[in-house]
Specification:
With 151 residues, this protein is an all-beta fold. It contains 1 helix and 10 strands, in the order E-E-E-E-H-E-E-E-E-E-E. It has a 4-stranded mixed beta sheet with strand order 3-8-7-5. The protein has a two-stranded antiparallel sheet with strand order 1-2.
């Protein structure tokens, strides 16, 4: 791998009487072998803002190349509430000589955060049969992925 590209070599010929001559040639070494892209499926949870992010290292499962890996990249790195469930991502692996290959993995996105109820100004109310005071404040709730109506 360290000799990829043009290399000057010298050929020396010696006959039986110790007469010697030399000539040079250029030998060009090429790396045309794509790297091996290996992936693994993962599961991620959305945060309180309904977002989850991943990096190429989260999906990579030991991608390799004889001449070394220059970079790993993903086509999708951020997920939101709309992505809950299975999502296919593509890992691109580029070796040190610009050969590249891709592989896919499944990212399962989960929303595991329960809604947070908020109740304001809730007080005990005594209601007489003939008169309803109308002072009940409806409860509210907040969730990272849903519009909620609390009752």
């Amino acid at each position: 791998c360290k000799n990829v590209g043009p290399n000057t070599v010298t050929l020396t010929v010696v006959d039986n009487n110790q007469n010697e001559t030399t000539a040079t040639a250029t030998v060009t070494v090429e790396d045309n072998v794509a790297p091996v892209a290996l992936t693994k499926n993962i599961t991620v949870q959305l945060d309180a803002n309904g977002i989850a992010t991943i990096a190429p290292a989260d999906i990579d499962n030991g991608s390799n190349d004889a001449c070394g890996i220059a970079s790993l990249s993903l086509d999708i790195t951020e997920f939101s509430c709309e992505d809950v469930g299975g999502n296919i991502v593509t890992l691109t692996v580029v070796d040190n000589n610009q050969n590249e290959t891709t592989a896919t993995a499944k990212v399962t996105v989960e929303d595991t955060i329960a809604p947070i109820p908020t109740i304001a100004n809730l007080e005990d109310i005594i209601v007489k049969c003939e008169v309803f005071p109308g002072r009940i404040t409806a409860p509210t709730a907040k969730d990272n992925c849903s519009e909620l109506t609390a009752t």
